[in-house]
């Protein structure tokens, strides 16, 4: 059993750790999958089962400024803004500028075309940010330390103990490893939501969004000699929230909180006919980032895994951002890692619903 799982305590590198220590590296949003994971992590911390060391934000789903604003409000809304710090990271990918993306999509139009931050103008001031439905944070402030500095200092202070939940583009982690390679052997593990191996991508026909947004960073981080687990679209495509699960979160009269109300407001399209959408009886939506925190807390949520050597294409063309999982070690310094293929959906949704419907504000120990 690994220290990422042994909630009662274990020894790693000679240091006793009673609960998993986590950095959440995220292209944060109010209560999409990143925001949901933030709420779940805070509830696990309140139970004494998780130690959230901080949230590092990167551009991806949204530009950095917007993601930071949403993360600050998220922690304040949950009542943990004074305990879980938010750190601003990379605003731009290591490569993959918008002009290149435009040329690729013009030459190779395919996939869903989800562009995240690139689909809207970059905010240049706070006045251009969009407030969450319940307003901006009023007293929770951004930490002075950058995301890269925080990752480096935290890993050094907790050698072999830190899990990084990498649920956005990998720019922050790549920069931390580039600038301070001495931290690499000290990272406990990285758990990703990213990649698409045997299924189509969700931005292009071949590429999943998180790794497509900064494929160079993905190539670099996947090559780090660190214990790594990938939760790709192959499994997230099979974990779908339906109306029954949605109603358990939003319509239980005994479990109404600011989180369940926001969940209904922001995720109700297709289920409750919100935001101009018609209610569709068989409507479902995929579950993405929150699978990583379930796997961290209990890897047996994964009912099928494979050991693979994983790489990402970072070259211009139709396969830019495409992930490949090799069954045997190819040349080129790739690392062997665990690829999750299937999840215990029923048990996961019990875990998911429970944490999203717990009382708010959270009371940390």
How does this structure look, described?
The protein has one domain (10-239, 287-356): Inosine-uridine Nucleoside N-ribohydrolase, Chain A (Alpha-Beta Complex). The longest helix is centred in the N-terminal third of the chain and has 15 residues, at 64-78. The two termini are 25 Å apart. The protein has 12 helices and 13 strands. With 365 residues, the protein is α/β, with parallel strands linked by helices. Helix 5 crosses helix 7 (215-222). GO terms for molecular function: hydrolase activity. InterPro entries: Inosine/uridine_hydrolase_dom, IUNH, Ribo_hydro-like. It comes from Paraburkholderia sabiae.
Total count of strands:
13
Approximate strand percentage: 15-25%
CATH class: Alpha Beta
How many helices in DSSP terms?
12
Q: How many structural domains are formed by the residues?
A: 1
Kindly, what is the distance between the CA atoms of the first and last residues, rounded to a whole number of angstroms?
Answer: 25 Å
Which series of helices and strands comes N to C? Answer: EEEHEHEHHEHEHHEHEHHEHEEEH
Structural class, please? alpha/beta
Largest beta sheet: what is the strand line-up?
5-4-3-6-7-8-13-11-12
Rg from Cα: 19 Å
Superfamily (CATH H level) name? Ribonucleoside hydrolase-like
Q: Uncertain segments of ≥5 residues (pLDDT<50)? A: 1-16
CATH structural architecture = Alpha-Beta Complex
Describe the global form: globular
Largest sheet: 9 strands, mixed
The CATH topology = Inosine-uridine Nucleoside N-ribohydrolase, Chain A
Helix content: 25-40%
Q: Kindly state the mean pLDDT as a whole number?
A: 93
InterPro entries: Inosine/uridine_hydrolase_dom, IUNH, Ribo_hydro-like
Protein name: Nucleoside hydrolase
Pfam family, one: IU_nuc_hydro
Keywords: Glycosidase, Hydrolase
């Amino acid at each position: 059993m690994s220290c990422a799982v042994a909630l009662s305590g274990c020894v790693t590198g000679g240091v006793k750790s009673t609960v998993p220590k986590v950095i959440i590296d995220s292209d944060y949003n109010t209560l999409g999958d990143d925001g949901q994971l933030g709420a779940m992590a805070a509830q696990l911390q309140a139970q004494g089962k998780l130690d959230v060391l901080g949230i590092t934000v990167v551009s991806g789903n949204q530009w950095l400024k917007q993601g930071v604003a949403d993360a600050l409000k998220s922690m304040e809304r949950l009542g943990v803004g004074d305990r879980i710090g938010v750190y601003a990271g990379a605003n731009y990918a290591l490569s993959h500028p918008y002009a290149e993306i435009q040329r690729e999509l013009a030459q190779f139009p395919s996939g869903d075309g989800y562009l995240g931050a690139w689909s809207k103008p970059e905010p240049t001031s706070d006045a251009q940010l969009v407030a969450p439905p319940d307003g901006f944070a009023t007293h929770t402030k951004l930490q002075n330390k950058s995301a890269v500095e925080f990752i480096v200092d935290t890993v050094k202070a907790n050698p072999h103990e830190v899990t990084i939940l990498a649920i956005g583009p990998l720019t922050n982690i790549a920069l931390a490893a580039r600038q301070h390679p001495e931290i690499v052997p000290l990272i406990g593990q990285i758990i990703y939501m990213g990649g698409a191996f045997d299924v189509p991508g969700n931005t292009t026909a071949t590429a999943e969004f998180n790794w497509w947004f900064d494929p160079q960073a993905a190539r670099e981080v996947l090559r780090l000699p660190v214990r790594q687990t990938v939760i790709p679209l192959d499994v997230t495509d099979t974990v779908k929230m339906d109306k029954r699960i949605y109603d358990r979160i939003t319509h239980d009269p005994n479990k109404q909180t600011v989180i369940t109300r926001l969940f209904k407001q922001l995720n109700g399209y297709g289920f409750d006919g919100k935001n101009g959408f018609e209610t569709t009886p068989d409507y479902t939506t995929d579950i993405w980032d929150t699978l990583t925190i379930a796997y961290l807390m209990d890897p047996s949520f994964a009912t099928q895994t494979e050991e693979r050597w994983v790489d990402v294409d970072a070259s211009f063309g139709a396969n830019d951002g495409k992930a490949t999982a090799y069954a045997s070690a190819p040349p080129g310094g790739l690392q062997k890692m665990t690829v999750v293929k299937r999840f215990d959906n029923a048990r996961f949704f019990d875990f998911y619903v429970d944490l999203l419907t717990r009382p708010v504000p959270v009371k940390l120990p």
